[in-house]
From TrEMBL:
The protein, known as: Cytochrome c-type biogenesis protein DsbD, protein-disulfide reductase
Organism field: Christiangramia flava JLT2011
Enzyme Commission code(s) on record: 1.8.1.8
SUPFAM superfamilies: Thioredoxin-like
InterPro entries: Cyt_c_assmbl_TM_dom, DsbDN, Thioredoxin-like_sf
Pfam (any one): DsbD_N
Thiol:disulfide interchange protein DsbD N-terminal domain span: 34-145
Location in or out of the cell: Membrane
UniProtKB keywords: Cytochrome c-type biogenesis, Membrane, Oxidoreductase, Transmembrane, Transmembrane helix
Single Gene Ontology BP annotation: cell redox homeostasis
Organism lineage string: Bacteria, Pseudomonadati, Bacteroidota, Flavobacteriia, Flavobacteriales
Stored PANTHER family: THIOL:DISULFIDE INTERCHANGE PROTEIN DSBD
Length: 685
């Protein structure tokens, strides 16, 4: 848990401004003469767990393309288009098309004709980086300069958005959080904690297999009978448990090094590794069904076991190693499932997964060695252990379909649509239910005449899950399973013609405060009536006496779209947004240039902000000290924060609580203002 807390605390939170990547500029010739044609390269260091969009995909797709704009200069001439060097390609379900991107190092090249003996090449890189770990997207502008004399490089970050005195400053924001003891959620940490808990549960499941469970009393007996003192036995048991954790965590470390973020992007999208993973999961399932056993070579296991007889600390370590190897036929598929689930671009996730798995795996051996009288409460080994193994086989079979689905979606094979996927899951889990009731048996099992109470209860839960899946065949969203199911757009038969009736309803209490600016360019989802300019929204809020919901968003923000599709679509959230708030969406990547009279020089970076997006981002940075999207802020009619801002969070209940807390604070301030006005009036009377 201590290691986990360190990992989580190392992740950036939403309320901090992230620095732009480092850029380097170089040319392919050392000595330049007028008339030469050179290639100038721009390289950016993309942070770990982030990716940078390239410049060579359809600009209408959605994500923000990288642009490198050269200033007018008599010393050189730009030739041709900007060329990205070996970007990766990925199909995205939400955008409905393929885009290109970079991880690690991003490189762009531009051909330039030299006109002066001492050229100075100046450009501005406009780009966006995103992370699937934190759910954030951040747009940047970076000045790029190459001088043939000094061959130096200068870079400066610029952000973007509107200077105003309405929202509180970053210092006041910090004070606000301290006063109300509200902290922003670190979404990357939340994702890792969830994965840790799932891996911990998998470790507990691994204990209940016929390869491992019988070894618990055998191991505990060794520690309780082979030592002179109880204290010595306890210390050796603790070392034994720590060795198990160390071995599995080392496996996670090796996996992370071999299949880190760069290679994992290939793993997550290419047909070859995904079909391989599908086959591996299928083999795991068949192994659990008893068709064959996955074993390590006996000679290797015997050599490791021989090392455990040496005694001392090293002997205890090799005892733990022997346990890991002997139990491999049962634990290998489970641990392998965790590692393959972690192969999605995150280098720390395999470590967290193996830490959780091994902690649960080692815990019983250590605790029973410390408290040996607990052994009397353990159930005896028997057929129930094989039942656990077969149940895990059905789960492996269901998980295998996810990898096949990825290939189907990316390459548009269209043979595993959402309804077919659900049909297969329904059959798999229905068979699992019948197995638990004793209606299906495998050749290596003894025939059971009756089902135990535990089997019947388990079967009831499984069949309930099957019943829950069935409406999905007719278009039910099944939101808790959205991450494992193919997109709704692949559904061949959908009775739900109107996703949400409330989407097409506009509350009669909403009055129009004038035509929203930029409504011909921008839009809000789910027929929400709102604004795209903060000043206009503030004026409307004052007229209607309502709080403001500020949505800092972007065209290229995939997690903004996911929030809108998953969280905003909930009828309870829609009701609050439509009735209780004045909604304003501030797009930070909108490139529409404003009239010159609306330009201004930012106090943040002393740069002129000309576009809607740049002014919105500058507003966000200066007033909230943040630059990542999605980012949701609630303010009152004077522009003061009502609660701590909120970032990417797919939990609908959390979002509803966020909106309700803001509304309560707004009402409390209104009552306080009315009371203050009454006191003043009484004094005047």
């Amino acid at each position: 848990m201590f290691l986990l807390s360190i990992f989580i605390s190392s992740l950036s939170s939403y309320g901090q401004v992230m620095d732009p990547p480092n850029w380097e500029v170089s040319v392919d010739k050392e000595k330049l003469e007028p008339g030469d044609t050179i290639v100038i390269s721009f390289q950016a260091e993309v942070p770990a767990d982030w990716y940078l969009y390239s410049s060579d995909f359809d600009p209408e797709l959605g994500p923000m393309l990288t642009e490198i704009n050269f200033g007018e200069n008599q010393s050189y001439e730009v030739i041709g288009d900007l060329i990205p060097v070996d970007p990766k390609e990925k199909y995205d379900e939400l955008w409905g098309g393929k885009y290109t991107y970079f991880t690690g190092i991003a490189e762009f090249q531009q051909r330039i004709k030299i006109r002066s003996s001492v050229p100075k090449i100046e450009a501005v890189a406009i780009y966006q980086i995103c992370s699937d770990v934190t759910g954030q997207c951040i747009p940047f502008e970076t000045d790029l300069v190459w001088n043939s004399k000094k061959e130096d490089f200068l870079q400066n970050q610029s952000a973007s958005i509107k200077d105003g005195n309405d929202l509180i400053s970053s210092k006041e924001l910090k004070s606000f959080k301290n006063e109300f003891k509200i902290e922003e959620k670190e979404e990357g940490g939340a994702f890792l904690l969830t994965f840790f808990l799932l891996s911990f549960g998998a470790g507990l499941a691994a204990l209940l297999t016929p390869c491992v469970f019988p070894m618990i009393p055998m191991t505990v007996t060794y520690f309780t009978k082979s030592n002179i003192s109880r204290a010595n036995g306890i210390s050796q048991a603790l070392l034994y448990g720590f060795s198990i954790i160390l071995i599995y965590t080392l496996i996670g470390t090796v996996f992370s090094l071999l299949f880190g973020a760069d290679f994992a992007n290939f793993l997550s999208t290419h047909w070859l590794p995904n079909l391989f993973f599908f086959a591996v999961f299928l083999l795991f399932a068949l192994s659990f069904f008893g068709l064959f056993e996955i074993r390590l070579p006996n000679s290797f296991v015997n050599k490791i076991d021989a090392q455990s007889n040496k005694g001392g600390l090293l002997g205890i370590f090799f005892m733990a190693f022997t346990l890991v190897l002997v139990g491999f036929s049962c634990t290998g598929p489970i641990a392998g499932t965790i590692l393959l689930q972690a192969a999605n671009g995150e280098t720390i996730k395999p470590l967290i997964g193996m830490l959780g798995f091994s902690l649960a795996f080692a815990l019983p051996f250590t605790l029973f060695a410390i408290f040996p009288h607990w052994l009397k409460s353990l159930p005896k080994s028997g057929g129930w252990l094989n039942t656990v193994k077969v149940v895990l086989g059905f789960v492996e079979l269901a998980l295998a379909l996810k990898f096949l689905s990825i290939v189907d979606q990316v390459y548009h094979w269209e043979f595993l649509d959402r309804d077919i996927y659900l049909a297969l899951w329904i059959v798999i889990f229905a068979f699992l239910g019948f197995y638990l009731l004793g209606k299906i048996q495998f050749p290596h099992e003894k025939k059971t005449e009756s089902a135990s109470v535990y089997r019947v209860i388990s079967a009831i839960l499984i069949f309930s899950f099957v019943v829950y899946l069935i409406p999905g065949l007719f278009g039910a969203p099944l939101k808790p399973l959205a991450g494992y199911l193919p997109p709704m757009s692949s559904q061949n038969f959908n009775m739900n013609t109107s996703t949400l009736v409330s989407e097409n309803e506009v509350d009669s209490n909403i009055t129009n405060c004038g035509t929203p600016k930029y409504n011909d360019l921008l839009e809000l989802p789910h027929n929400i009536q709102g604004y795209f300019d903060y000043d206009q929204a503030l004026e409307c809020a004052q007229k209607q006496n309502k709080p403001i919901f500020i949505d800092f968003t972007g065209h290229g923000c995939v997690n903004c779209r996911e929030m809108e599709a998953t969280v905003w679509s909930d009828p309870r959230v829609l009701k609050r947004l439509k009735n209780d708030y004045v909604v304003v969406a501030l797009y930070v990547d909108e490139k529409t240039e404003l009239p010159e009279s609306e330009w201004y020089v930012s106090a943040h970076d002393q740069k002129v902000k000309k576009t809607i997006g740049k002014q919105n981002l500058d507003f966000m940075i200066q007033k909230l000290n943040a630059n990542a999207q999605p980012y949701y802020t609630l303010v009152d009619t004077s522009g003061s924060l009502l609660s701590a801002p909120k970032g990417y969070d797919l939990n609908v209940e959390n979002f509803i609580e966020f909106l309700d807390n803001g509304l309560k604070e707004f009402d409390a301030r209104q009552e306080k203002n009315i009371a203050s006005t009454g006191i003043i009036q009484n004094k005047e009377d």
